[in-house]
User: Fold this.
Amino acid sequence: MIKQEKSEERVLLRRRMSRKVLSFCLVIVASLFSHPSFAYLDGFSAGNIMNDYTMSNSSTMTEAEVDAFLHAHNPCNDTDLEKPQRYARTRNLSYHIEDGHFVCLADEKFSGVSLDGVTTFENASAAHVIHFTAVDYDINPQVLLVLLEKEQGLISDTWPDAGQYQIATGYGCPDTAACDTRYYGFINQVQRAAELFHSVLLGYWSNYPVGNNFIRYDVEEDCGGSVVFIENRATSALYRYTPYQPNAASLAAGYGAGDACSSHGNRNFYNLFTDWFGSTQTTPNDTPVTPEPEQPTAPEVPETPEDPAPEDPVPADNPEPETPEEPATPVVVKGDLNGDGDINISDVAKLFAVVQGTIKLSPDSPYFIAADFQGTGTLTIANVAKLFAFVQGNITEL
Assistant:
């Protein structure tokens, strides 16, 4: 992906902010970075970024829903037409302006021919191109929406330039060379990306096939990498598209810059998808499975208290409800590992010591529970990195 000049200032700002982190934090985090096998974002796994069903489920959105999504995220009402003149590198770019405002992706129209040469698009909306392509290639339209944002920020950009549409999904734009002009054009880009994902899902070639693969952290070889067991073809397709995994600094930074060896592509893909659409691990049975088992048991609960309750006030002896240490619950909150009512770097340090084994915590301890954000019963580097990201302000919930 070629980064747009408009985003350079934001990236530089993020990098400056990350340099201001206390050196103590950096010592801790540097230790975390040496343990690349853990996933640090909620549910993120380098070997299973998305499952095959989620990537291939083309029925998640109708064309009308895609259109509504685009307009809800960006109403195309930016009237600050002097904006390009304030940035040296955007002054000579081409913009679509109508009725005193920039035209954004939601309202833009596209014409061209599909890859197979069968379908002609005439002044087609972005929603139509995205939905048509999703159905044609059996790809989740949500995947294409995320890709457009991840690569060129086109969902949120209120003043996109013509160049962003030329390389809308970053297809044919390697990090080590200029973009290939053969793949220019919004329709071409969306369809090429879908075609690539579809081909890998069908079992065609991928440079990162299912199984063990060494995946680098960044384009720079000196940044290193690690062996990742790729669990499915969807994840294989994502690595064929963006051949890097996020390092620990990238994961701990949320949407931030991380460090000099941080890549953001697959991390941002995961972040955007889960923020916008939920889990990357959906199955056809997601909705029917959970509600049904719970409903038969619910009616049985009221029947037992009904007899004793009216005439038997004595069972309200309640020695048992009082024994589960109620004082611990209000005092210790998620992330507060020392019970001081504040969540800060000392909690990160303590949790790191617990994970390293220098401090012992019983699984029954309220402080263990405060650190077990996912309720898995285990504390790993993943918990440390998440707590550090929370303390930094990169995430708002534990």
Observations:
- The two ends are 31 Å apart (CA to CA).
- Residues 286-322 form one domain.
- The first strand starts at residue 97 and ends at 98.
- The chain has 19 helices and six strands.
